[in-house]
Design brief:
The protein is built from eleven helices and 14 strands. The protein is an alpha/beta fold and 396 residues long. Strand 2 and strand 3 form a beta hairpin. The longest helix has 18 residues.
Length: 396
């Protein structure tokens, strides 16, 4: 074991480190609950705006990325310092042990936020970081095994508040809501993390039927199927930590294999997806077939307003109401705002008529509609796709 390997073990893989699970505003409590449900030792949890702070070992971070459905990404805190001018900043960057966290010549992006600080020009700060990192690597001797270029792009998140710099490495890479199974998108796609939150809030566990009657690209349906079958949401994708010097393939393979052992089968379909768009149904069926979800999801080319859940009498009976999830088109993406408001009211009337006793989650395109919704559902504020929305949940 060379000197750098020993330093990596001593400073990165050995001790517990601080992490931050970033999530959409409004989902912090759900994120905490999910984090605490992991079969690992999570300590020092703290809910803050936009996510949850916690400490754990680096391999527990692997499992969190693989298993969590709510967060957007998981950051690892790697250092902090104070700097009030560029000379101080350059000195701090030059003395920081970047070689512990990524490889020389690694594709690198610096993401900066600054508030109440004398250094606030993002481009100038970013250039100092990039130049300082290059100088650091050029000024130290690194063995050949640590000189390789990783194919996994890396991101450094730099948060500056009151001249205090907090440095974090992004362990996730692509946002975690990108599960890696959908190769097509709908006209108004929903983030998988939002869909996962809706499923949590309705209490869906696969023991009751679920209807996704405006399924589009199938985000609700696919997310529900993965949850029912206990498929890890990160099973079909890669992560940025796979390009870290501390990463050990055997350890991660063991974690993945243990997670795969917990995947279950369903005896019959419990998720029923429909859309009036025939092409959307066809594309969803392709994804279902590609990932062997046929036993769990059944797709129909039907309009929400043209059928009742009890038309599916082979699977659904009035004695066993289930869960209905709906993501209506937003006015800024499909049609006008006034059209989407009319559609929202029409959907609520349909639910009131045909889905008595069902748990519901519906995304409202307007805060006023959320407050005045005729179904008396509880609003959960969300920020999604640049829009302030509400996720309405409750029992009809």
């Amino acid at each position: 074991m060379n000197a750098l390997s020993k330093r990596i073990k001593r400073h990165v893989t050995g001790p517990e480190r601080t992490f931050f699970a970033a999530t959409s505003p409004g989902l912090e409590k759900l994120c905490l609950d999910e984090l605490l449900s992991l079969p690992v030792s999570i300590k020092n949890t703290k809910v803050v705006e936009g996510g949850v702070e916690f400490t754990c070992r680096i391999h527990d971070c692997y499992l969190a990325n693989l298993s969590m459905r709510i967060p957007t990404r998981i950051l690892m805190r790697v250092g902090d310092f104070k700097a009030t001018n560029f000379r101080q900043l350059e000195k701090k960057i030059a003395g920081f042990p970047w070689e512990l966290f990524f490889y020389k010549n690694n594709p690198l992006q610096i993401r900066i936020t600054s508030k109440h600080s004398r250094l606030y020009h993002k481009n100038a700060i970013s250039e100092r970081f990039k130049k300082g990192i290059i100088n650091r690597f050029n000024g130290i001797k690194i063995s050949e095994e640590f000189s390789n270029v990783s194919s996994y792009p890396q991101q450094i998140f730099v948060r500056i508040i009151d001249d205090f710099f907090t440095l974090s490495m992004d362990s996730s890479g692509e946002p975690l809501y990108k599960r890696g199974i959908k190769k097509h998108g709908g006209k108004a796609p929903l983030r998988e993390s939002i869909a996962a939150a809706a499923l949590k809030l309705t209490g869906f566990n696969g023991k009751k039927p679920l209807i996704d009657p405006m399924c589009g690209s199938g985000t609700f349906s696919l997310e529900a199927a993965m949850a029912v079958k206990n498929i890890p949401p990160g099973l079909f994708r890669d992560f940025a930590f796979m390009g870290w010097p501390c990463f050990r393939i055997p350890r991660f393979d063991y974690i993945k294999n243990e997670s795969k052992k917990k995947i279950i089968t369903t005896e019959h379909p419990v998720i029923f997806s429909s859309d009036k768009d025939k092409n959307a149904c066809s594309l969803l069926n392709q994804t279902i077939n590609n990932y062997n979800l046929q036993e769990t999801i059944k797709v129909f080319n039907r309009d929400l307003f043209d059928f009742s859940p009890y038309d599916l009498s082979e699977y659904i009976t009035p004695e066993k109401p289930g869960v209905v999830l709906i993501n209506p088109p937003y006015g800024r993406r499909i049609g006008s705002v006034s059209e989407s408001k009319k559609l929202f009211y029409k959907i609520c009337k349909k639910l009131e008529k045909d889905y008595k006793g069902w748990e519901v989650a519906i995304i409202s395109p307007d805060k006023k509609l959320a407050v005045k919704n005729i179904l008396n559902l509880a609003p959960h504020p969300l920020f999604h796709g640049g829009l302030n929305l509400s996720l309405l949940t409750g029992k009809i």
